[in-house]
Amino acid sequence: MTKQLISIHKICESYQIPESFFEELQAYELLPVYTENNKLLIDENTLPQVEKIMRLHFDLNINMEGIDVIINLLNQIEQMQDEINELKKRLRLYEDI
User: Fold this and answer.
1) Apex CA 4: angle with CA 58 and CA 6, to 5°?
2) Which of 4, 25, 56, 87 has CA atoms 20 to 30 A from the CA of 39?
């Protein structure tokens, strides 16, 4: 599947945020940023993640270090939920015996 890339400049204009915000996201490795023809781009599938990070940063005034911790914890929770669901499926197999 090919990535649909969107310009960071357009996103910043749309949401009225500084482009330096994306530089910080890239520095903390919170978001993969691509370069094409001297333009900074992101995968449009990451927009929900960007919006979540924007709310944390701009609405709740959480700094990038805090956002990094929050995102990592949310990812760990998601992984654990996936593991729990897989274990529940395995247990159902033994219930039928």
Assistant:
1) 40
2) 56
